[in-house]
Design goal:
The protein has 428 residues and is mainly alpha-helical. The protein has a single domain, classed as MFS general substrate transporter like domains (Growth Hormone, Chain: A). It has helices at residues 2-10, 13-42, 47-97, 101-128, 135-165, 172-187, 190-193, 204-208, 223-243, 247-254, 259-287, 289-309, 313-341, 347-375, 388-409.
Amino acid sequence: MTSLAGIYRGFSVEARAFLAGAALIEAGNAFQYALQNLYITSLGIGVADVGWINGASAIGVVAATFPSASLYDRLGPRRSLLLASTLKALSIAGMALCSGFWWLVAWSALSGASYTLHKVVAAPFLVSTSRGHERTHLFQADFAVHTLTQTGGVLPSTLIAGSLAQGVDGSTWPLRIALLAGAALGMLAWRPYRRLPRVLPGSEEAASRSPLAVLAILRPSQWHLWMRLSIPHFLVGTGAGLSIPFINLYFTQRFTLPVAALGLVLAAASATMTLGAVLTPRVVARFGLVRATILTEALSIPFFLVLALTTSFPLAVAAYILRSAFMNLSQPLWRNLMMEITPEQHRPAVNGASMLCWNLGWAVSNHWGGWLIDSSAGWLSAGLDGYALPMLLTIATYLLAIALEARFFWSFRHVGQVRPGAQPVPTA
């Protein structure tokens, strides 16, 4: 713990302020993650239409990706992140107070757009406020903030909803109240974000660029860079969209799990990811960013297979926790790799393009995942419900993504690696 505290104190003041604000946004997001699908189905909306609403969030991400990179150039970190936190809180509150399908679609789209702004700003901002040798620690700290606040947000959100439901007829209003609490948490991010610099040193040139300058990454001369980074991300997003948005419904429907108990399962998965985030820099130092990313993704596959096929609740919980830990640990490694191998002037755009492709995949597959869950029960086996086939398709897309990552980035396999007694391998 002393070592971890020393690493945290070594981060810049700006990086620590960002982590504090991100913790509050992520806590509010955890309330939404745990309860949104349950809230929507409590309104009498079917799982296939839940997929449409979730898909609207991904459409919001796609629409906001390049504008977000341009906003970061023009507004700077402070105003960009204040705007992101405000819109995210507004979207959660709007969803909690609405029951019409198209209103839910609209608020979901705004939620995706605002979260995109936050994420597009995060990676280049963290790179700009850190030194090369500490970036792996900083990206993992950002991920640990995400997982810790998921743990600290999922559990109370489900407990609040579960306890209120005991004294209220129906389950919609308890879920609404818990979602509004999540929106309030997101607005608290204003306090640390107001301490961020309005502009970063050396960013004057970025602020003076045309809003369309971010599209320079789409020039044919840059295709080799962002397409290699984005195609595997598209496949992972496509696979994730088939099954991950419905994981709370998977547990409540396949195993008839109460809402409060669901919070314990989701929180346990987040806590395990936090432990992994602490250990990951050692894995990177030994294997490098590319091999560490591929390793963590590959280790998640067997547990996802168990999750798809098992009818044992304890086995499903164990598989979900371990799958979540390994697959999600690859995400900060992937973001770190992107930033390390991308020229500085293209980092916001490349980060945005990669997010755009991930969310295009997510948007395309969300509806199909919901439709398969509603209609594919018994297709593979008489004893399997509709969750099995989408999860098996998710595994297939993950395996293809892993193969492409190895093909595209093996030449960068030593980036981030530290041999005994040596300095970190220089980045490209």
